[in-house]
Write a structure and sequence with these properties.
single chain, 372 residues, alpha/beta, Aspartate Aminotransferase, domain 1, 2 domains, seven-stranded mixed beta sheet, three-stranded antiparallel beta sheet
Length: 372
């Protein structure tokens, strides 16, 4: 249970918990941002004040994720679901694209892309209920694929690519597109293997409403004629995310989160590298407890378990309601699993401290003791 006077631990899958320091700073600046006399929500997006916020956010994110110079950082709207349409509108050139199906979100991506291109399935783990990852050596990638899409962390199913595939080593020249919504900034990205990455901010980077797109320069300028101009990556890039009114409050909050992330340390490590070590420790603590218990279980193959989203089940699911009620009483919030898979789910994003995971494990241990 959190110490007296502290906030409850929020295990929501998204919109998710944000760093308390970020929320407190935003609260302090709510009515007057740095002497401007305005709240960020009241600023003109073309005013000099917001220009400072935008430039700092872009610079900090580039540093934080070690984004190479040949990639553009775009601040957009529409979330991951929106990008499921925006990506094929920009990259497919009306041809074919290949999709790796690993769970609920990649299924949605494939279905949406069928509206705009020949969306094919290169590999799928549906046969085992989305509990493991298909071996890249067996992926069927077409020579004509405009791109290959995968969801690098499946929030609902609790599956994560521990290493991104090297498409060139598989004999493909197609760029890799990754939906990294639910683990962006939780581990480094190998940009040498990525052509485009997108993600909603509401899990690891900020509030709902902001979408981050990181796109390689050579992938710009190929949008279909039907692509709305506000979603054309080249137009957005040429206008530095200011073609239309951007989600100003979301960019501001994400910018504060970027600063917070850059300040984090773990030994000699800083930023994303530090967060990766913390996330390994948090995930190991929770998975080790689950694996050591006959009362709880996680069904995902050990080599692809998500560090961010940990689904688990009670062996006797008639106790689910009692488990959730007890968790709420212990200030452990939002642990109910997604309706499509049931059970429980603990989302342990960057803002979740190790102490929160320890509090959850302590509660799970006590619940097992009293109900076994």
């Amino acid at each position: 249970m959190p110490a007296p006077g502290t906030r409850p631990y929020n295990f929501s899958a998204g919109p998710a918990a944000m760093p308390e320091a970020v929320l407190r700073r935003a609260a302090a600046e709510m009515l007057d941002w740095q002497g401007s006399g305005m709240s960020v929500m009241e600023m003109s997006h073309r005013g000099k004040e917001f220009g400072v916020i935008l430039a700092q956010a872009e610079s900090d994110l580039r540093t934080l994720l070690a984004v190479p110079d040949q990639f553009h950082i775009l601040f957009m709207q529409g979330g991951g679901l929106g990008e499921n349409a925006i990506v094929p509108l920009n990259l497919s050139r009306g041809g074919a694209a290949d999709f790796v199906i690993t769970g609920s979100w990649s299924i949605k991506s494939h279905k949406e892309a069928q509206r705009y291109c020949a969306a094919r399935i290169a590999a799928s783990n549906a046969a085992d209920g989305h509990l493991s990852l298909p071996d890249p050596a067996g992926w069927q990638i077409g020579a004509d694929a405009a791109y290959v899409h995968l969801c690098s962390n499946e929030t609902i199913n609790g599956i994560e690519f521990q290493q991104l595939p090297d498409l060139a080593a598989l004999g493909s020249k197609a760029p890799l597109v990754i939906d990294f919504s639910s683990h962006v900034a939780s581990r480094p990205v190998d940009w040498a293997r990525v052509g485009l990455a997108f993600g909603g901010a509401q899990k690891n980077l900020g509030p709902a409403g902001l979408t981050i797109v990181v796109v390689r320069d050579d992938l710009l300028g190929h949008a279909l004629e039907i692509c709305p101009s506000a979603f054309n990556y080249k137009i957005v890039a040429d206008n530095r995310s200011m073609y239309n009114t951007p989600p100003t409050w979301g960019i501001y909050m994400a910018g504060l989160t970027f600063q917070w992330l850059r300040e984090q340390t773990e030994g000699a490590l800083t930023g994303v590298e530090a967060m990766a070590q913390r996330n390994i420790a948090k995930a190991r603590l929770l998975y080790d407890f689950i694996d050591g218990s006959d009362f709880y279980l996680n069904k995902v193959a050990a080599d692809c378990r998500s560090r961010m989203n940990v689904p688990f089940f009670l062996a006797d699911e008639s106790r689910n309601d009692a488990f959730l009620a007890g968790a709420r009483a212990a200030d452990l919030l939002q642990l109910k699993g997604h309706k499509s898979v049931g059970g429980m789910r603990a989302s342990i994003y960057n803002a979740m401290p190790l102490e929160g995971v320890q509090a959850l494990v302590n509660y799970m241990r006590e619940f097992e003791r009293s109900h076994a």
